[in-house]
Amino acid sequence: MMESTQAAVRSRKSHHKSRSGCGNCKKRRIKVSDPLSRLSSSTLLHPPGHVMDQRSKSCHLKAIKVLRSLFCRGNHQIEWMESQSLHESPTNKLQCDEKKPACAKCVNHSIECDFLSTDANSSLSPSSAPQPASSKTRFKFKPSKYQSSKPSSPAASQTSLDVPRAVSSVPESQTRPETLSFEDLQLFHHFVTETYRTLADESTDNNRIWQTHVPKWGFTTPSIFHLILAMAALHQGHLNPDLRNQYVLQADAHFTFGIRSVSAILACLNAENCQLIYMSAVLICFVYFAHGPRPGEYLVFSQTGKAEWLVLMRGVRSILGSHHEKIFSGVLAIQHDPSVQEISPSLRDELREHAARMHDVRVFIGAHVGAESGIYMAAIDNLLEMFEESYRTCSAGKGGVGVMSHAIGWIYRRPEEFICLLEERDPYALIILAYWCVLLKLMGSSWMMIGWDRHVIGGIQSCLSSEYHQWIEWPVRVICE
């Protein structure tokens, strides 16, 4: 009997079968594999023509593992996309609803439905053909690769623009469509005229990284291209609250394609493309901030498992681990701001108060932890240094995004042991993190960071038992006043 050795076969889910769907949907009924499944260890460790040492192999493996965990988190898969289309089941995404005069799938993709052309010939005049009701609230691909490239009308041919093909190292299936919609052009224009100004200090960005180089890199790097459009959409949503939902849908669509493209090229990480991959990872973190706080997610700890943003941060760390010197060279070389000097007298007293309160926390933790307090003391000492650097930056009138390198740098430099304490919601680690939230408040003038200080400090309050609340009274007062 072979029954004992045969694996159990799951029955297929019953569904309605029909052969009357539109032609475009029939063409679109193809199986799409997980882009991360292509990133096997053999592909990762032996990209064509590239030899890596053991340290680089280790960093590559960590980067792939981080991105894989970002997509596949079991029952805790990331769900910070607000677009309803991202929550559809795989079966529903591939089914035609057979609605006439145009099925929903063709309407959503802004392509001409077979039903529409058939009905138009029989009973409808062109002027009476319905228009997509949501064409202004969804990201549109023009034309679809499942439809003939011949435009259906002169107007349709004028609403798209050919862009250069992606770099050869990226599988074609993971790249963006080779056309841009009018909405895409609007977002790109907004990024190069408005959004880029919010990502860096123009007075010290002598290389014009965000204004010139990042948009230019986007034409050959799909991940950067889609992620800057996602940032522009979220910025537009911030500037136009009444239209935020519309722009969030566009941002979600671009983010989806952007992060898939990053996962596809991670296997080919090398000295030539490491800057592009690094900037893609930075943009992913920016999009996360710009999307706004989510319930239960507090950047470095979560109420539902691994913190989403911390997964992204680990990805950045893995990329930097293999090509740090190369990444921060050329146009990305670190530029020092000569205008940042001493702390102004008006801010020095405020800094002294922070230092005194953190000294009390240091004594409290030392008395209760004892010999194991070294990791906490190191975190407090480095946080004090970041406070000083941040207040120097603010004294030069460059708060907001100017403080980001100091605030995020503190998290980046924490050893994995301390990060694990935060993830486990260790009370002493959370008390220290509460003081770090003051740096988030200093970043509050950046549209990306609005509300994050109150959100994270609120999460800390909810996780700490009442006996520890007195030790976070000061940062709570500073943030909430």
UniProtKB/TrEMBL annotation:
Transmembrane segments: none annotated. Gene3D superfamilies: Zn(2)-C6 fungal-type DNA-binding domain. The keyword DNA-binding applies. Residues 92-115 form the Zn(2)-C6 fungal-type domain. GO terms for molecular function: DNA binding; DNA-binding transcription factor activity, RNA polymerase II-specific; zinc ion binding. Keywords: DNA-binding, Nucleus, Transcription, Transcription regulation. InterPro entries: Zn2-C6_fun-type_DNA-bd_sf, Zn2-C6_fungal_TF, Zn2Cys6_DnaBD. Residues 1-24, 123-177 are annotated as: Disordered. This is Zn(2)-C6 fungal-type domain-containing protein. It comes from Penicillium salamii.
